[in-house]
Amino acid sequence: MATEKNIEKYNQTLQKYVDNKAFVKLYRTVCGNEETLSGFILAVSNLFLLLRPADDFMLDGFAIIRTDDYDSIRHSSYERTQRKIYKAEGLLSENFAFEKPIPLTGWADIFRTLKRYDIHVIIESIDGNSIDFRIGPIKRVTEKSVTIHNYDPDGKLEEKPTNIRYDAISIVQFGDRYSTVFRKYLK
Questions:
Q1: Coil, strand or helix: which one is 172?
Q2: What residues pair up with 48 in beta bridges, in sequence order?
Q3: What CATH topology corresponds to 106-187?
Q4: In angstroms, rounded to a whole number, what is the distance separating the alpha carbons of residues 52 and 59?
Q5: Considering the domain 1-98 in this protein, what is its CATH number?
Q6: At residue 181, what are phi and psi to the nearest 5 degrees?
Q7: What is the Cα–Cα distance from 53 to 25, expressed in whole angstroms?
Q8: In the chain, which residues fall in CATH 2.30.30.100?
Q9: Structure pTM?
């Protein structure tokens, strides 16, 4: 019973971050390395967080991670100061949220929706003790995996699309400057 109360309290805190457009810093351990991700939590479900990543006072796309795929969240005076600057710069009103609904109910639902919106994604997945990075359009969505047509740093699409299991996914990003600009110059 105490665990359910802790989860409920934690979910209420996350929802307050969403409601207040709070700037936060997430700490994650990926393949034994600590990583951070700063930005604004736009939506929360029992399974996922939808984030608006931010760095150096610039918003850059959106990210989805599992709720159990980060270690902690910091919202201290530092993050509150950062938020004040983002607000003063006018970044919390113009094009802040993702304009279309994304169901945070499961990877299959998320990828079907992003495919329908014709959005290229960046997927970081864990393969053993290393992180794989794939970027491209979504080609196929099943109940256990997603297939994307990966392109390399030269903008060349690989001959064969890449299949990625949902249980290996660490983070999905989309709507970021890198993928939205690069897609225009694919070969």
A1: strand
A2: 66
A3: SH3 type barrels. (2.30.30)
A4: 7
A5: 2.30.30.100
A6: -80, -45
A7: 10
A8: 1-98, 106-187
A9: 0.90
**1-15, 37-51, 68-82: the lowest-pLDDT one:** 1-15
Q: How many CB atoms lie within 10 A of CB 175?
A: 21
Rounded-to-integer distance, Cα 160 and Cα 65, Å? 26
For residue 148, give the nearest of 116, 111, 178 by alpha carbon.
111
Average pLDDT for 146-162 = 92
- For residue 59, the tally of other CB atoms under 10 A from its CB is 21
What's the whole-number mean pLDDT along residues 10-27?
88
- pLDDT tens across 69-94, in order? 888 899 999 999 999 999 999 998 86
Classify residue 61 as exposed, middle or buried by CB count within 10 Å of its CB (0-12, 13-18, 19+).
buried
Mean pLDDT in residue range 157-169:
94
Tell the residue number behind the tokens 């919202």, with chain if given.
Answer: 75
